Amino acid sequence: MHLPFSLRRIFGSGLVLLLFATHTMAQTAASRGKTTTLLNTGWRFKQASKENWAPATVPGCVHTDLLATKQIDDPLYRDNELKQQWIGKTDWEYETTFTVPAATLQRSNLELVFKGLDTYADVTLNNVGVLHTDNMFREWRANVKPQLKAGENRLHIRFRSPLNEVAGLPAKYGYNLYAGNDEQAMGFVGDKGPALSPYTRKAPYQYGWDWGPRFVTSGIWQPVQLEAWDAAKLTDLHVIQRQISPQAAQLGLEVEYEATASAAKQEATLVIETIGPDGKAVGQRSEQKVTLQPNRHTLTAELQLSNPQLWYPAGYGAQALYSFRAQLLQNGQPLDEATTRTGLRTLQLRREHDQYGKSFEFIVNGIPIFVKGVNWIPAEIFPTRVTPARYHQLLQAAKDCNMNMVRVWGGGIYENQYFYDTCDELGLLVWQDFMFACSFYPGNQEFVDNVRAEATYQVKRLRDHPSISIWVGNNENEIAWQQWGIPEKMGAHKLEVWSNYLKLYRDLLPTVLQEQDPSRPYMSSSPSAEFEDMAGSQTNGDMHYWDVWGGTAPLSDYEKQVPRFMSEYGFQSFPELKSVKEFTVEADHDITSAVMKEHQRSAAGNPRLKEYLLRDYKEPKNFESFLYVSQVLQAQAIKLAAEHLRRNRPRTMGSMYWQLDDCWGVASWSSIDYYGRWKALQYYAKRFYSPVLVSPHEEGDNVRFYVVSDKTTATPGQLQVRLQDFNGRTLFSQTQSLQIEPLTSKAYLDIPRAKLLGKQDPKRVVLSCELRVGGEVVSTNTHYFALPKDLQLPNSKVEADWKQTNDSTFQVTLQSKTLARAVMLTLAQADGFFADNYFDLLPGEKKTLTFQSKAPITVAELRRQLVARSLVDAF
Predict the structure, then answer these.
(1) CA 497, CA 292: separation in Å to the nearest integer?
(2) How far apart are CA 439 and CA 475, in angstroms?
């Protein structure tokens, strides 16, 4: 490969990628290469006003350290959080000691690096102040060569209470910048405490969104390390995808380095290697002589790859990933190295005028992608407790349910590297919000500079991930201004507040992106039509729809929405009883109990959930049944919306429901609960997001049978439609061969309702659809002609036949003589995962699925413990 290099000066702060690490400092002087020492051990913490030091874990936070040292009870259990509000109102201290060899002090540069401090921190080293921080979303650095000494060094951090820090700011500004109208929602703590979010660069979900506990955390939430280097170090490696096709990839490689003044005009060698998706080198190792210059500079290289393997979203092809390594050598010795990994693909957000308004569709490698996705909130109230295994489990569940995009919502955190690496590997596109949500923010120079540093750091950290598909300035701030009465709320300050809005989202963030990542689309807010239309328009931009649930509109109103892209909509449910037992006692098992109310953050809360439930269902007979029916209700609601959105392709090109995961045991909109158990909605999503979907729909006097295909080629198929009574008698049957058109939604069959039903009682029949491709069933669906509460469901008995396939995997075959609607499978005591659940078991038909046990269990025990509940059992 041919690699011509040129030098150009880069100004401004940049992300330092620490990829040449060692855990000891003894070898530093000899190699003159950069070394990195983790300082994550030996920490202790205490309340600032006391002297009772206790061991601390870094990364972590005050709450997890208090819990680990048994100074508080589990904050997520029952109503313990109400007793722990004092934690957020308190200053905390952390300290550790570490040993520095004398040889290390001879290094030219010694820097303390904090990958994340939450949030207001004063850092001292050997009793000398070296750093003050006020943003948990930034990396912080301090030159500590003057403060370090040979031998033992003391590093001390005092975290000032975020609540105390911002307490006077609303009065100082003269107005409250929070845009919401629910005091229990974002920004309020405990008994209507001060609104934090607009005034601090801190994760708002951690202190009282309407699905999270009211915690205000502090602590060292990312690693701490000491960097030592001499002449030069590499600070970034970035791959620019100039032109990509299956025949060739034109790439630009940017290698950023920083050199000391004493290294000026010294010679060095830059070596670049490319590793293909198969782990083998691509092309020849390249070496280029470099004359070092002081301060920060960027070397650029042009690279061409022949016949590259492209990266595709899940469902459209493989996720080929290329790795690049840059190494800086001097006299044959390594000074530093940096690596990055990316996938080669073209990506466009197509916004073109058409007969419906203005399109909103992602095009990847020339393929228009119907986004089947979900919103992502942080998976833990204390983010350092989310293990790689848990990240992988959640994201794999998204892919397993045929999703191709997750939206990292602007009220949480910028996720860690493992999250984005996993999205790259699984083919999950990422809609990435900047961390601004439901608030208006200051526009003073100090705040703007802080945001600029944050955005630059995060964009440079994430821009090589092929999964990142769009940057979005904020969550719901634009629609708040236009439709929530915010200008009136701001009164005389409204021009100033709006000017600050434009400063952040029209000027600052686009400027950072133009400098650091101009290849990706940017949108100032979600939802937004970029001021061409009202935010949330059905003809332009994306839409958040909350009239169902938030506005108590009937579920049928989902089908009145035909936006260009639905980026947020949702419906609540409770976790199942096994999960509820994790945070309650028996006495709490009533939706009106104090603890169940405490684990319900929506202002409307449990009464609204019950109101919706009673519109469609009878009153559940007990607490456990209420939990179960709430999940069926949620799943049916989102199914109704998602299938409607898919049927309206290409007018609508995206469906992302709210939300995949949950951050604690709570009634929420998630499809997977905090404890990792799939709710009914997650199982339903696997079906309504199927790559080829059959979707029956009543329209006027007819039932139309749509087939929606995400396949890129025409697919021959066979559709069978059958009407049965609940005892299994076939009343109508029709089979039709289809040539399913690619990337389309189309009604292939249209049958009058009267022809289907004849004189049958609509309360006693079920319409089933089965779509086969190549003899394999690829999609099934059922349709009922009456509300669940009006159906004359028979008492059904589900029989199960178990078979063990290996140590922990079993097959179970189910059958019922009569219809069993919304069958939920669980075990009385043991736990595990059913590959399918919450399905309609048609009379007389067999259904076989797998079960993965979490612990050793026998077939006899499975027979004894299996509980197969259906809808009729709940009333």
Answers:
(1) 46
(2) 9
Question: Rounded to whole angstroms, what are the CA distances from 211 to 206, 290, 712?
Answer: 10, 54, 39
What is the C-alpha to C-alpha distance for residues 556 and 706, in angstroms, rounded to an integer?
Answer: 18
Return the sign of the alpha-carbon dihedral for residues 194, 195, 198, 200. Answer: positive
Region(s) of the chain under CATH 2.60.40.10: 230-342, 692-790, 799-874
**Distance from the first to the final alpha carbon of the chain:** 71
User: How large is the angle between the packed helices 680-688 and 623-647, nearest 10 degrees?
Assistant: 20
Check if the beta carbon of residue 799 is closer than 8 Å to that of residue 816.
yes
Per-residue burial over 669-683, b if 16 or more Cβ lie within 10 Å, else e, is bbbbbbbbbbbbbbb
| Whole-number Å distance between alpha carbons of 425 and 488 | 47
In this structure, are residues 322 and 283 in contact, taking their beta carbons and an 8 Å threshold?
Answer: no
3-state secondary structure of 37: strand
Can you name the CATH fold of 799-874? Immunoglobulin-like (2.60.40)
pLDDT tens for 618-651 read 999 999 999 999 999 999 999 999 999 999 999 9
How far is residue 704's CA from residue 746's CA, in Å, rounded to a whole number?
Answer: 10
Class of domain 692-790: mainly beta
Q: Provide CB contacts within 8 A for 699, sequence distance 6+.
A: none
Element (H, E) at 516: helix 509-516
Residues 6+ apart with CB under 8 A from 788: 616, 617, 618, 821, 871
pTM of the predicted model as reported, rounded to 2 decimal places: 0.94
13-62 pLDDT, tens per residue?
Answer: 232 333 333 333 333 333 489 999 999 999 999 999 899 999 999 999 99
Q: What's the pLDDT score for residue 210?
A: 63
Task: Tell me what pLDDT residue 491 has.
Answer: 87
Tens of pLDDT along 161-171?
998 998 888 77
| Residue 528 CB partners (closer than 8 Å, separation 6+) | 478, 479, 535, 541, 542
Q: Which two tokens stand for residue 180?
A: 């919401």
Distance CA 544, CA 98 (A): 50
CA distance 688 to 218: 41
Fold of the CATH domain 230-342: Immunoglobulin-like (2.60.40)
The predicted structure's pLDDT at residue 180: 59
Pairing mode of beta strands 654-657, 371-376: parallel
Q: Which DSSP string corresponds to 438-488?
A: SB----SHHHHHHHHHHHHHHHHHHTT-TTEEEEES-BSHHHHHHHS-HHH
- Mind giving me the DSSP string for 53-90? -EE--SS--HHHHHHHTTSS--TTSTTGGGGGGGGGGS
pLDDT in tens, 78-107: 999 999 989 999 999 999 999 999 999 999
Q: In 351-462, at which residue ranges do the beta strands (DSSP E only) sit?
A: 353-354, 357-358, 361-364, 367-369, 371-376, 405-408, 429-433
User: CA–CA separation, 697 vs 746, rounded Å?
Assistant: 12
Look at strands 692-699 and 654-657 and give their pairing. unpaired
Q: Show Cβ contacts of residue 472 under 8 Å, excluding neighbours closer than 6 positions.
A: 410, 431, 432, 433, 434, 522, 523, 524, 525, 526
Per the prediction, the chain carries an average pLDDT of 92
On whether the CB atoms of residues 411 and 209 are closer than 8 A, the answer is yes
At residue 6, the pLDDT reads 32
Q: Please write the tens of the pLDDT for every residue from 251-274.
A: 999 999 999 999 999 999 999 999
Class of domain 347-688: alpha beta
